[in-house]
Design brief:
Strand content: 35-45%
CATH class of the largest domain: Alpha Beta
Helix content: 10-25%
Structural class: alpha+beta
Number of domains: 2
Distance between the termini: 14 Å
CATH superfamily of the largest domain: Diaminopimelate Epimerase, Chain A, domain 1
Low-confidence stretches: 1-5, 282-289
Number of strands: 17
Order of helices and strands: EEHEEEHEEEEEHEEEHEEEEHH
CATH topology of the largest domain: Diaminopimelate Epimerase, Chain A, domain 1
CATH architecture of the largest domain: Roll
Number of helices: 6
Largest sheet: 17 strands, mixed
């Protein structure tokens, strides 16, 4: 990463996976994490900051190649982000000269690999199917939630509510998404997916992400949707999903749910000292560089 002449700033990179875009801050060589809720919210502003669906901070790890923390654009923490995991893994693999890495997230230890065609695959772990693990506010059948539209709930380190609809392209994502995100059934709010079967083992999916809104893709949401589709008897365990921003492939194996898709480095940049000084609670970040 190029730091530029102003050492009082904060370097970052911009990446995307199938249109799901991220700001990445590499803190492996710093004394501690630099991201705060205020900094995440300021950076997430697409007019006054950089803009992203999620922010990922890379930190050092014992027993793994790196640790990864996730933030939403509203300043809240995200427990998992599959596409960011793939993108950052590609970045770290290139930095370390490896074709596979292990990383630690709130989800636990994950493994990511670069394929011969340049795509990156990551094991997102086993799905959480018990109501308390998703989590939900009280015991219900997670495959048939007591909500209009008969959705299913799946946890992938973060909660998901999956609706199977005749035409995902016509789904009212902007209307139903925030309504379901804040439904009392989900004490930690939820991501909301709308999916329709378009061919054997192929789904069209659109998503409303918790803390971010409508995004072009959602990796953990694709995993949750594929799991729910298989458990509902709609597909096998290997599913291709067409999202607004691209194509993701999901393979629910014995060792976890593997997600494969494209990665892209967009640009490298540096937040100015003036920007950092204008964000409440970020004085320590400039001092830590």
């Amino acid at each position: 990463m190029t730091y530029g002449p102003d050492q009082s700033g904060l370097p970052f990179i911009k990446m995307h996976g199938a249109g799901n875009d991220f700001v990445v801050i590499d803190s492996r060589r710093r004394a501690g994490a630099v991201v705060t809720p205020a900094l995440a919210q300021a950076l997430g502003d697409r007019n006054r900051g950089v803009g992203f669906d999620q922010l990922a901070e890379i930190r050092p790890a014992e027993g793994a190649d790196f640790t990864l923390d996730f933030w939403n654009s509203d300043g809240s923490r995200a427990g998992a982000c599959g596409n960011a995991t793939r993108c950052v893994s590609d970045y770290v693999m290139r930095d370390l000269g490896k074709d596979a890495v292990t990383l630690l997230t709130a989800r636990g230890s994950l493994r990511a690999e670069r394929l011969a065609d340049g795509r990156v695959t990551v094991n997102m772990g086993q799905p959480q199917l018990d109501w308390a693990e998703v989590p939900l506010s009280h015991p219900v059948d997670t495959l048939h939630l007591p909500l209009a539209g008969d959705p299913a709930a799946v946890g992938m380190g973060n909660p998901h509510c999956v609706f199977f609809v005749p035409d995902a392209g016509a789904a009212d994502v902007a209307g139903r998404g925030p309504e379901i995100e804040h439904d009392p059934l989900f004490p930690q709010r939820t991501n909301v997916e709308f999916a329709s079967l378009t061919a054997p083992d192929r789904l069209r999916m659109r998503v409303w992400e918790r803390g971010a809104g409508i995004t072009l893709a959602c990796g953990s949401g694709a995993c949750a949707t594929a799991v729910a589709a298989h458990l509902r008897g709609l597909t096998g365990r290997r599913v291709t999903l067409d999202l607004d921003g691209g194509v993701l492939e999901i393979d629910w194996r014995e060792d976890g749910v593997w997600m494969t898709g494209p990665v892209a480095l967009v640009f490298e940049g540096q937040l100015s000292a003036a920007f950092l000084a204008g964000v409440s609670g970020t004085i320590a970040e400039a001092d830590a560089i």
